[in-house]
Write a structure and sequence with these properties.
homodimer; alpha+beta; Rossmann fold; Dna Ligase, domain 1; D-amino Acid Aminotransferase, Chain A, domain 1; 25% helix
Chain lengths: 383, 383
């Protein structure tokens, strides 16, 4: 897509139709582009706001090919995708960003870590698990991670003692030292086709203890200038090592000793960047569209501090969602309410989020905690 | 819709599928609502981002009835609508905001003006035109306005001399004194079902001389505290006089003598409030959804000064639009690009807009003027 390309006709394909695809599509539609979603679920969140929905799974080669053939550019809202047909199409000159080779690399958390390590990027100590003895190599406690398929705390577990080895993940995995974490940070990095990068502010993620799902995001993080600078440096270096085009979320550990280590990278918009919709000049969702369509990257300036909280399905409920507390929560000033339009809730499913703006980040956090107390996503059926 | 209503199922109907309906729908979808658009045009901007499209005209009683029957709440992106069937449905208890009685009143600019005048709101001197002599009652020059159907400078003209009477609008009309305008201002007012109002900042509108279409909007307006206060006071009083629920744009004249007069009121989101998407805590488009669905009104706080410019179809072109300059324009920092997805351009048609944020409003204006110079909406056919 060069300067003579007619952007008023641009056809974008998105693999995945959840909340990330939904907001990406809304931003692409804002810019007047035509959007097609590939997703197996009828009436998925992104399909509700897009021009076309191809119903197909992420391993359905025929449907993946159809999406790429029908559109000018294809991108992703998730990385758990069959890459074989995409690599073929990519090699034949179809525009797919990030490249399916990068998606493939990132799918394997061990290979991802190895690459970063080889490029001199600080990561926690790790070791491939080839046999049961390897699990004990760092002593206990230790973190075991599945190489493939993990998300939202799934595919990651702590093995506390030797006896816990009985409950090891029964899949290809690696181990990681248990890091003494002070804070979990994240940096969203955009990279365009020319290799130019732009960074969003460093944010702080707080996790739900029960599920290890990211619960609260504070933008900016409460960290020193030095930690901020180093976090950004490491994040940009990581994405330059990958040579990807699009949006990448770099999850970082700040250790109690003050080291900064890369935990993992997501090759797409990320929960830790939801706040950018309300708080930054260009949201991560618009930024990926700009990057993959060869438009200039937008400003990542933080217009206002913000706190984001996820709205997870309440424990004990499933079925058609009911938003308890919506009236009271929307009384909170400078609160923006997102509900994804999923027709079925279950415990801890990501159903929506809210973002609160406030010049004072502590006040934003206080308002967010209030919203979290008030808003409950219940379901039509008690379980 | 009370606190027990299940908002995850809420069905919203919007009459009109242009750019205003499009952004309204995107905000309703953000909150997870189901949106149906009524519009006669296949693939109109709002239909592209909504769940359902009823193809029908704004005077098609059957289709208007279908929309109201199928949804929980109906609202408007335009006021030129047949109100008879809507009044019937409203009287039978269907939720329609603003009420079709208010839409009907506002459709007639003369009746609108009369009501405001009767409620003590300052308006330019005006007079009903019952016969040709009435056109001369204020001397010349004088403004003649069609009572019904005007928009974007259409249905308004200046009669400069007695000789110009030959070119008078051949329709039911009234005359208005020619006001010595210093600035044209606008205030967006939201009003909810309980009668609570919230005001957006006073903005300044600059008009294209050739077409009298609002061209540039500066938020906030460069006015004294006193003019600001009075503008807000008059605007709120106007909307309280109407007793409408939703979003209302009050267009004001600031005269060279320092008077503030109400020009006219639009009972819906308005071009002068586009900037609220990027610059305010709650956009006018989300605010109308909150108001008509009986949710609390959101904060109207200005997070950053902003300048909005319209992207009108270039003179001399029609057909499939081509966005000239998109690469260069998107290099401008803190610029947000909106393109409506209309498949046909013609001279002066509203095809998109851009909003620029900057802490310094003069800098925002400078960037906006640069974008205006760069971006040209040309068409596939020279005319």
């Amino acid at each position: 897509m060069d300067k003579n390309f007619n952007y008023s006709n641009l056809k974008l394909g998105i693999i995945g139709g959840g909340q990330l695809g939904k907001i990406m599509s809304q931003k692409a539609k804002k810019m007047g582009f035509h959007v097609t979603i590939l997703d197996p679920t009828f009436n998925c969140p992104a399909a509700q706001v897009s021009d076309k929905h191809i119903m197909g799974g992420f391993h359905d080669k025929e449907k993946l090919e159809q999406l790429v053939q029908e559109t000018d550019v294809t991108t992703f809202e998730l990385e758990h995708v069959d890459t074989s047909i995409l690599k073929e199409l990519f090699d034949n000159g179809h525009i797919i960003h990030p490249s399916p080779y990068i998606i493939e690399l990132i799918q394997n958390k061990y290979e991802q870590k190895k690459l970063l390590d080889e490029k001199g990027i600080p990561v926690p100590k790790y070791k491939n698990v080839e046999n049961d003895e390897d699990l004990s190599a760092f002593g206990f406690p230790v973190i075991q991670k599945a190489k493939m398929g993990g998300y939202d705390g799934k595919g990651v577990q702590m093995i506390k003692t030797k006896a816990d080895l009985a409950y090891r993940l029964p899949t290809e995995s690696f181990i990681e030292e248990l890091v003494d974490i002070d804070k979990e940070l994240a940096v969203i990095v955009a990279r365009n086709i020319e290799g130019q990068t732009k960074c969003y502010p460093v944010v702080e993620m707080l996790f739900d203890d029960r599920t290890n799902i990211c619960d609260i995001v504070m933008a900016p993080a409460k960290i020193s200038k030095e930690v901020e600078k180093k976090s950004i440096e490491i994040s940009v270096k990581s994405i330059e090592a990958l040579e990807g085009v699009g949006i990448f979320a770099v999850e970082l550990f700040l250790t109690k000793k003050g080291e900064i280590l890369v935990n993992e990278i997501a090759p797409r918009p990320h929960n830790s960047g939801h706040y950018t919709v309300e708080a930054c000049a260009t949201s991560q969702f618009e930024q990926i569209i700009r990057a993959v369509t060869n438009l200039p990257l937008g400003s990542t300036k933080l217009i206002s501090p913000a706190v984001m909280i996820n709205l997870l399905g309440e424990e004990g409920y499933e079925g058609e969602p009911f938003i308890e507390g919506i009236h009271d929560a929307l009384e909170i000033p400078e609160l923006s309410f997102h509900f994804y339009g999923k027709t079925f809730t279950k415990p801890y499913r990501k159903m929506g989020h809210v973002t609160i703006l406030d010049d004072d980040i502590d006040m934003a956090l206080e308002k967010a905690m209030r919203a979290k107390d008030i808003l409950k996503i219940k379901g039509s059926k008690k379980i």
